[in-house]
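Journal club side-thread
Mid-discussion, someone asked how the predicted structure for our own chain would compare to the paper's figures. Pasting it here so we can look after the session.
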Amino acid sequence: MIKANTGRNGADEKVVIAVRPERLQIVGSAGENVVQATVQGGSYLGSVYQYELTGAGSTFRVQTAREVADKHVFVYVPPEASTLFAAQSRPQA
């Protein structure tokens, strides 16, 4: 679970969290504001590695200075680097 303040006391609503890929951190274990994810692929971009991950019902990217060898990782989402948006409900096709 990711904890964040939406600015509404007691509001229970779905939100989207936006975080730049270089602000996410791969960590060694579960904890507060940590998402378990699976590495789907990655690329070396010269000075950083960029990985595409799936976890918590989403697909997202992480950039890190070190190579990731594990398929399953934990990703820390820093609250101060997160921007929250109200989730848009999509009409059924």
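Post-session note: The mean pLDDT is 86.
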